Amino acid sequence: MLRESGSILDTAMIYWDVRLSAHLPTIEIRVSDVPATVAETVLLATLVRALVVTAVAAVDSGRLADPIDQGQLRSACWRAARDGLAGSGFDMATRRLVPVVRLLNRLLSYTRSCLEESGDYAHTRDAMAAVLAGGNGAMRQRRALRAGGLMGVIDSATHSTIEGCRITESGQPALER
Prior knowledge:
two-stranded antiparallel sheet, 6 strands
């Protein structure tokens, strides 16, 4: 109906937080913000993979998650977007606000078995600690704005984009190995 009405051009324009890909054997996760650095992108991808693998294993063994009301889920997403890493998040198990760091530690604990099996636990734990200590992209951009105005934000974003890369002789960034 959306395509027929002209509201969308194709099914890729239907936005979901999480969905099966229409053309790849993957799950698309669209709920999170865009990571600002290569390290943050790897951290997010590693956590998402571990969460999916852990959840599939739970379903395969008959352990189903409790249903979550859509209104509560939307409220939790709104709170996460509002507060970010430094604030509180909605704990679906207790139905209470708790520090985001507590929720992240529970996520790490929940996915630990999968992360250890893939050899990613120590790196993921350390990468998460680094983000919590230094802030994510939004936090760094706010600090840069206060310190150097719009040019400070641009300089910070440029640095974050190429962080973890080396510059080739042609002046192009390439991932460090």
